[in-house]
Amino acid sequence: MFANVLQYSPQVKAFLFIKNGVALGCGTLFVDSHHVAGLHTIGTLPEGRNKGIGKK
């Protein structure tokens, strides 16, 4: 379902944080019709925590 949302909705973007070829974190950006943005599902793997990945 998430792949379909990303493919067909220009208002939703997914981001992946990769360091040295390893995906350590991810997040989703949603922008509504009024151009108000929200960050959702921000997460990191245990080995990526406490390194500022979520802030980036």
Q: What is the topology?
A:
Blueprint (H helix, E strand, L loop, with lengths): L1 H7 L3 E8 L2 E10 L5 E8 L12
Antiparallel strand pairs: 1-2, 2-3
Structure description:
The protein has 56 residues and is mainly beta. It has one domain (2-44). The chain is 12% helix and 46% strand. Strands 1-2-3 form a three-stranded antiparallel β-sheet, with no helix packed on it. The radius of gyration is 13 Å and the shape is globular.
Quick structural gist:
This protein is mainly beta and about 55 residues long. The protein has one helix spanning about 1-10, and strands at about 10-20, 20-30, 35-45.
Beta-strand content: over 45%
Main beta sheet strand tally, sense and closure = 3 strands, antiparallel
Classification by helices and strands: mainly beta
Helix content estimate: 10-25%
By DSSP (H or I, 4+ residues per run), the number of helices equals 1
Distance between the termini: 26 Å
Give the tags.
three-stranded antiparallel beta sheet; 56 residues; mainly beta; 1 helix; globular
